Amino acid sequence: FPVTIGVQRVYQGMNISGNDHLDEQTIRSFFGKEVGDSLDRNQLVSLDQAIRERYVQEGYLYANVDFELLVNPLPRKLPTTVVVKISEGPRVKIGEITINGLIKTKPHVVLRELSFSPGQWYSPDLIEASRRHLVELGLFRSVQILPSDRNVVNDKVQYLDITIDLRESKPGTAAFGPGWSSARGSRFGVESAYNNLYGTGRQVFSRAGVSEDSYRDWE
Questions:
Q1: Which residues in 154-166 are b (16+ Cβ under 10 Å) and which e?
Q2: How confident is the model at residue 7 (pLDDT cuts 50, 70, 90)?
Q3: 93 with 123: CB under 8 angstroms?
Q4: Phi and psi of 128, rounded to 5°?
């Protein structure tokens, strides 16, 4: 089978422009290549994803990244300079916050669990942290935090309105269980809990139990 190896492309350096928010050292750290290392397309794709993801984390939802490769041909090698052109676009802030799906729970119970507020820079990490906090309350069967307008990326707005869609769980639980053992005789226990007292997210618990073993202690 005849094989044609061709000429190896090697990394020669990187030129970066348009990066007002992120410094060059941060962007270069995403690449992790030294001069003379081999260079292929997959590495550039990974660099593109890393830059875009970091900008989104910083609230730049519309950042765009373009690449250009400058080649200086040599025998058996193609030393290549990677030119990174960044268009950051506007940085996005949190706009209005709308809460849907509340029946018994008071709105302030939801708001106190949010890690973001109107006027703050948008951050997916804070959005996800807020979703986890609401789930951990145990008051909701499902929690979604999404942009109010799904086409907002196309409009490139500077304030992103957020909608929190909730489905409440049943606030009360009850459990009971009879039992019997040769050592302790019959037993019966009851437990109940209410997880959303007056819609404030406060919890009340109660527990009671009866057993033949307890009766013997009184005899």
A1: eeebeebebebeb
A2: confident
A3: no
A4: -65, -40
If one compares 63 and 138, the residue with the highest pLDDT of the two is: 63
The string of DSSP letters for 9-62 reads: EEEEEEEEES-SSS-HHHHHHHH---TT-B--HHHHHHHHHHHHHHHHHTT-TT
- Gap between the Cα atoms of 91 and 2, Å rounded: 53
Q: What is the residue type of 82?
A: V
Question: Quick check: 43 and 34 in contact, CB under 8 A?
Answer: no
Q: Are 202 and 104 in contact (CB under 8 A)?
A: no
Q: Is residue 215 very low, low, confident or very high in pLDDT (cuts 50, 70, 90)?
A: very low
Lookup result for tokens 């292929």 = 40
pLDDT band with cut points at 50, 70 and 90 for residue 42:
very high
pLDDT digits (tens, 9 = 90+) for 120-137: 999 999 999 999 999 988
Tokens of 195: 């997880």
